[in-house]
What does this fold into?
Amino acid sequence: MTRLRTIFVTPAAVLMLVTIVVPAAIICVYSVLSRGAYGGVELPWTIENYGRLIDPLYGGIFVRSVGLAAAATVLCILLGFPLALFIAQSGARRNLYLSLVILPFWTSFLIRLYAWMFLLRDTGLINTALQSLGLIHQPLPLLYNTGAVLLGLVYGFLPFAVLPIYATLERLDKSLLEAAADLGARPLAVLTRVTLPLCAPGIGAAAILVFVPSLGTYITSDLLGGSKTILIGNLVQNQFTTARDWPFGAAISIVLMIVAVMLMFAVRRRGEELL
Amino acid sequence: MKRRTLLLGGLAAACGRGPRLNVYNWSDYIAPETAPQFERESGVRIHYGTYESNQEMLAQVMSGNSGWDVVFPSGDFIEPMRELKLLAPLDHALLPNLSALSPEFQRPPWDPELRWAVPYMHGVTGILYQRSLQPAPATWADLWDARLRGRLTMLDDEPEVLGACLKKLRDSINSGNPAELQAAREQALAQKPLLRAYLNAEVRDQAAAGDVLAAQAWAVTAAQAIAAAPGKLAFAFPSEGFPRFADNVAILRESRRAEAAHRWINYLLHPQVAAGIVMATHTASANQEALRYLPPQVRQDPVLYPASEILARGEWFQAQPAASQKLRDRLWTEIKSS
Amino acid sequence: MKRGLEVYAIAIYAFLHLPLLILAIFSVNASRFTAWQGFSLHWYQAMFADRDLLESAGNSLAIAVASTALSTVIGTLAAYALWRRASNWLAGGLYLSLVTPEIVTGVSLLALFQWAFRYVDFRLGMHTVILAHVSFSIAYVVVVVLARLRGFDPALEEAAQDLGATEFAAFRRVTLPYLAPAVAAAAMLAFTISIDDYVITSLVAGVDSQTLPMVIYAMARRGVSPVLNAVSTTIVVLLGTLVLLSERLRRA
It folds into this structure.
């Protein structure tokens, strides 16, 4: 439209090109190359890397990762919705309550995971407290399993769920709710049959904001799952570092990207417009 | 303190200010005063980074422009790194202290002429366990015991885990036989449900804290853990046999500071320096002259300096030919992914 | 139902905040074990005595400042351009940047750099980390600034132009002041994201660009350590203050 707009948009566009498009192309190419003897990429071309993904071994990882991400998403939405409702109904204090949600959200994800390591380990606070109360005699294995990873994911991404839902709730036309009440609906019915459906865009945004990062999570499973729970994120990281199998890692990354993009399209059509 | 340019900060990073040597070593493998003393004596600043496994180090330096000058590969990695043209040949004229090495390490099997790397520390892999665990584990097979469920760790290292499985099946740790390797893989998969995690030196603190009952561990990690928790831990040399390893100092071909690197290596070979490192880190040095400076209880530490009958059950790790290495790498990915 | 919601909210807030509070409490515990043995600040002393830790904190700060400055400027301009006329490609690219899992962003940037370094005599270092941080922060900046722009009446800019201002002057003296709170908030957002990033940074960092999260991660992998408790508490307090400030500004 105007020169100013072109100038303004160029740096971002160039950056996007260089740091998103070109790398994606490189990864695509790597995914159809072969691994060198000790690592590295070399010819010949092959689709063996994608073929390996069909192997039930890796299929298991995908299923586990998707399942975990889905569980985290459902839990986050279930736990987050009532909180969002509470904040939306809290009137004058809502900024305070929002800040209380945002605060842990933005303070280091890594540290928040570490806090749970501190609490859950065999000689950690929870086990020590339970033992001193005489409720258990052996420490419970709370850490280094899938449950701990799920807890970490929910803890980390709960605010991701609360904020978009709150945003839609806040913009809700209160008169609709009043109308429903006037027509004789009880509070619970108003909730389930008016509020909830109107919140769908926010819930959709919340779902994708929790699901996709959970699907590709790496540090959560590495710290809380004890690097025994291998998820897709760990697998990719492994291939690009110690395992030195870049073509295989690239193939997995492409699949992950495709999943993320498909989900993005699905939600963008009926979800919150962030951009 | 080094100054940093704020905006495109690293343009000057490649040049640095003044002579600086980038040293990449295993964690807890040097004494606190080793680097500062070298800096004072030679005027070369040391920038020190650490890694937890050979594979981690190789992944970093494989690109050929990692920025590191000196690395510490294990013996079985010397040949692959040589083939990948990652190492610079050593100039013995700059290393007069080479004579301080033990005879065994003057002509090590992986580099008999010491052209590429100088032995630094050595050790074995065995079982670190809580004394409260009775009967004590004495064989690799004991690490498949269900009573260890959830409190057992193995090393996060393909040659080590496959090595333990191969030994359990009475095969060589260096086997390239696909059938034997597949059988080893089955063993590893069978053990996985009992495992807490695959950990290298990170297991030390957890063992000392009592979180871990038994761990496949390097002798140096075990010695450090035992020192951290006196009386609580012990180390076993598995009866089926165990791997021996030696970590070496090597100069990367990409390094532009070969002279400083040689000075650093020669410095590490100095008997008193080596002795200082041993005292601080509970390691077994390849440096014979250094032994003179060590108190008797360290020189006779059964974990670090086992009797020769015990050591006879040990087997050096050997570099694998490319084909069998590829198979092993793939099997390892499968084991870790299950 | 209102009472029920209140009780529930208290429970959830406790869940969200207690772990960090407990960490803070134990960071002043004289004992390194879970048993309480009196108040002590010596873990904080140990933290300040750790040269590696301080150096990595310095690196993190330098990287964060640089990448925040760059991404805020580039992102604000891009948001404005998008507001003036929507661009599906740019918006799509930004959205992609938001939804791509961190690990994929990280490995693809690593692949980019290693491929480029075959032709250019560079290596991984502070500059690659800064570039990476800028690239993933821009999308967040755009989201925040665009949200604020949605409430801006374009007629104001047109009026300024009618009165003789150039396009750029109209932007600078009418729109930008309006955007200022959002830009500041976006900057703080970009800052906290950059300071906290581990996955991408660990993949593209070089020899001399170890960051604080990398050090924390290595410590956390070894297990629990009281010095780590002290470090964590310090960071949480600092970042928390920054975040609260940012929220204040955003509402101003």
About this structure: Chain C has a mean pLDDT of 88. The first helix of chain C runs from residue 2 to 27. Chain C touches chain B at residues 55, 58-59, 62-63, 65-66, 69-70, 114, 117, 121-128, 130, 206-210, 221-225 (CB under 8 Å). Residues 1-40 of chain C form one domain.
